[in-house]
UniProtKB/TrEMBL annotation:
InterPro entries on file: 6-hairpin_glycosidase_sf, 6hp_glycosidase-like_sf, GH125, Glyco_trans_34, Nucleotide-diphossugar_trans
Organism: Thalassiosira oceanica (Marine diatom)
Lineage per the UniProt record: Eukaryota, Sar, Stramenopiles, Ochrophyta, Bacillariophyta
Gene Ontology biological process: carbohydrate metabolic process
The protein, known as: Uncharacterized protein
Presence of keyword Phosphoprotein: no
Composition skew (Polar residues), residue ranges: 23-35
Amino acid sequence: GDISDIDATSSVRGAIVDPPQPSTNQWHAAGNRSSDPGGDRQRKKNSPEGTPSSHTQPQIEIQIEIQRKGLNADIVKAIQQTAELPSFPINHRSGEKRPPLSDQAISQCHKALWHTLDTTTYVLPNNETFVITGDIRDLWLRDSAAQIHPLLVPSVYNGQSLVQYDRKLERVVSGLILKTARYIRFDPYANAFKLHGNTQYNYFERTALGRHGFISTWNYELDSACYFMRMLYFFHTNFPLHPILREKEVKEAVMIMVDVWIAEQRHEDDMYPTGRLFDCVHCNKPYRYNPKELSRGGKGSITNSSAGLTWSGFRPSDDPCKYGYLIPSNMFATVSLTYMMDLATNVWIDEPLSKKCRKLRDEIEAGIQRHGVVEHKKYGKIYAYEVDGLGKSLLMDDANVPSLLSIPYLGYKYDEQVYANTLKFILSRSDPYYHVGHSNRMEFSGIGSPHTSHIPNSIWPMAMIMEGLVSRNVTQKIHIVNQVLASSGSGWMHESFDPNNPKRFSRPWFCWPDSLFAELVMSLTDKCPQPSVGQYSIMTWSAEYAMNGTDFEKPASRMLNVKRPPQNPSKSKLVVMSVCVPGKRFSREYIHASLSNKRKFCNVWDAQCVLATELQGSDRKTYSAKWEKLHQINEMLHSDHDFDWIMWMDCDAVFTNIRIDWRKHLSPYLDDSKVLVASKDKNGINLGVLFVPHTREATRFIEEMYEMRHYIESHPNEKDWKDQAALNEMLAKDETLKNRISTDVPQGKINSFLDNPDGTRWSVGDWVAHQVWCQKDKNTKCDVNFISAARSIL
């Protein structure tokens, strides 16, 4: 891992050295020592003076590091000449009398902090890391950088950031920096990417939506690169000597985005960046997107090229901008450019780049002052959300960050009075997306987004959390923590929720607000993070080398490429689930026969039976009852029940031979590395009888499938399928999903059809009978046959 031949002005494309061993963290900033056992002893051994690092003055330690590694002495300036980091959230960890934080808040802080690592992080070969958003299995430049941000926050544990304390977390973040840089080089206008570049897109997707190769969505969003630059700079403040900072691809990614921002100052003039770094498929022509989303043939609304501001096609919500100059994102850009000026001067020793960043920053700042501050008849001077530089402005705020609410959190040097006026506006009914509601004797208030119009008047937890992050009042911050906890019915932060019914929400697996919540709580207490309360595991570690973390890492995960031992089918525990609701479709006699049949099976095979005769889902009054299946399975997967597999049976499916040992019967097919096991019929995967393993991956899959109900209900499908339509939509969006679903089990094994005219017909001795084809015709004979089969169980 020696880098003595790499100075601050040059690097080789792709030349990342192997990370140092856990006992010698040579990339740490002065005064921030690794907690690894033996670390101080190793530094003492390597130090020319032989002085223990715990007694070494910072400047001396820096010089020792430079001498030992042969680094360019100019790098020392990077430690001493840093740009100012944001002062929010304010540290309220001690020194004030305030309401206590609940144990629930401490516990949820740990869960939220590690949620990204546990469920969305893939440490890859080639020094890369891939971080998905959650239920959308792609990497958003913005979301991924925001998700890992709490790991970079200074002094959260023993005076260190988490990346300084834990070598494994350092590898996670450095890998994400490199991966992001490579994606930016692939296409600087894309905002989200896939892990694999083999997705087949149709003509419209390739031309109008810009999708090809690794690109998941090609929405040009100014804030995407801002988040990359913030991540890079915060990493620099933690490890000013780290080789990733001098990696050629990383610096080039910054150069690319600075040139894009300069070109997009004159978007109206069809400017675009050129040069050797712009060799992507969409490069060397003006940006154009789907005309249905951006007006004027995909160019967007008219803007003023002399405004100084830089254009963005889309907001951080992924919604199109009404006017092209998004003020919060331009503010974030000025902060990010200040960071890059520092790196250009003190790490890359590139004064022309530093001057270019400064000039662009000053032009954008002048544009914000000239066009971004408007007069409101009630609130006085406030910051606008969007402007066109020609006199038009959009007065609102959106929950997604950067937002007007988040201005202090971004680190922007704002006008105190203008921001105070802006707060009064956006946290009032004057803001069209500020909503208030009541549930269980608690008032919920906050900013929402047009992005979730399918839940009217919804609030985003992200915005509630941001109110806390920018607050100077410790009591208010704790009140917000309690509000957010009360809104999170599933235990996680959601995208949005109905303030009058928090159980109605969107996106159950959305790690960005989880990370923001952890950051808020960490600003209030030293009790989070603590290894004794919560530990992490990396979801997938497939890098070339093994690396142990610290006491924050779960001991079971401290191995490379560890798979859970194969399940012993003879010891598997089963839960049988079914719902039969009286009504037009099922008579009481029918329901009694179905549920009694399933209870008999459970009694014989010592399985748990979870059977219901009424709907439980929170939105059962507005959505089809067909979603109850996914709701019930989701609830069971999140419960404390001890089981290995869920067997779901529709009401019209029953056991017809309980002498069959289900474990032996299904042994070749129950693979718990899959998220779903089912059979196929002529219409595709049949979800009337299915198996779901009790695993983290399967839980996320069911959550995502259940969440699809909002989309499916607003996009009726031809045959009024619900769960099937949701699965088909997921398969269409994620080609890798088919590899995680098993349909190898023969239909006759689990799903023989009664009265089936063209398929596997049930016969005496089969394990399960499923009435599918004639029940809707009110055919009395069909019901009689079904009830007879249910009662004459072998």
